[in-house]
Each structure stands twice: as C-alpha cells, then as structure tokens.
Amino acid sequence: MVVSGTEGYVSSDSVALVAAGESHSFTGSKSNSFLVIDIPTRAWIATDALGALLWERARHHPFVPVDAELLRLIRYLARASERGQLRGPLIAHACALLLGTVSAQLGLGEQGAWPSSLRAVAGYVDAHLEWPLTVADMARVGNVSASRLHALFREHLMTTPQKYLTQRRLRRASELLAHTSLSVMEVALRVGYGDQAAFTRAFRKHVGTAPLGYRAALSSQQDEHKSQ
Fold this sequence. Notes:
Elements: E1 2-3, E2 6-7, E3 14-16, E4 24-25, H1 44-47, H2 49-60, E5 63-65, H3 68-82, H4 89-106, H5 116-127, H6 135-142, H7 146-157, H8 161-179, H9 184-190, H10 196-207, H11 211-227
C-alpha cells in the first residue's frame, strides 16, 4: 500500500491510517479481506483532541504495527460487521474503541502513559457502558485487585473507578443526545441506566442541564450556525 508516497504493508501485523485528503492506493496478492473504517472529518471521533493527535501521526507515519490484543479487537469488529451486528450508534462506539486502542499503543494522549492494566479497564468500560459494571468486574479485566485498581485510578486519573465509569457513561450519553435521534430512555439504556429519572438526575448533576434541555440547546446552536 502507498499512502502519500509512503510505502508499507497492511496485514495481520499492521494497519494503515489514512488522514483525510491524503492520496492512497493498494494492490494485493492471492485472496485478501479488509476491514475498512471510513470516519467523516466532522465526526466527534475525528474532531476531539486525541483524534487530532492520531491524524497528525497518520500524515507522517501511516503504518502502525498490530499487537495481539489489537488484532483480536480488529477480528472481532470484522466478524461483527459481517454479521450485521454493528448498526447505528454502535458503529461510532466501535470506531472510537478501535482508534482509542491504536492511539494508546502509539503512546498518544493521556492513555499512552497509563499502565497496560488501566488501559485494558478503560477500553472495557467504553465497550460495555450499558452493562451493570462493578469495581470487581473492572479489577478482573485489569488483572489486579480492587484496592490496586483504586490506587491506579487515584494515581493516573485523580478519581475512583466508579466515578470514572459515571463520567464515561455521561460523556457517551452527551454524544448520543448530540448525534442521534434516540429518545432519552433509549440513551439511558445505552449507557447503563435502567431508570430514566435516575439518568436525568445524574446527567443534570454532571452536565448542568437535563438531557432534553441539552439536546435543545445544541439544536439551537446548529440552527444559528446554519443561518449565519
């Protein structure tokens, strides 16, 4: 494969990152299968701080080696895509998880400095926000004790595992409210709240407004931008 004049290979050992606007071409021998993820430049995944770091890295070094953990994730997403299991917002979440994992492996952003056990927990949390996760569940994923997990969160994130989980749930809820037409109840279920009232209280506490108010404010801002 050639990306903006840089030659490399895409295989079970490496992936290629192609930044928006960069020329690329490829050829293959024998039979090949590819997992291609096309992310709009205006998508929240591409426009956040970590996305900007990743695309800048892609412009200069597009080929990224794949370790065993990343390869398992890629294969899982490929199978899920073939079976039609990735639909709607799940596609964005899967892309975010994959790009976050690539970024962490490259040492980009704050996760790049985290120990592997903490990165594993963070990735698992983002992939299972709708589950009734406990600190014990997260400790098992990180292969550490609950007390050690608390120590890691205090050292690297200045928070507790449970507060981190709540923060990630409400950030995902904000993204779903902003980028989908899901009802508030559907958003609540997608981020692990079985009760809409409890979700609304948590969202108001952390964001400063109710979910419907948050969505209405974003819609108003978008309308103002279009009219300018």
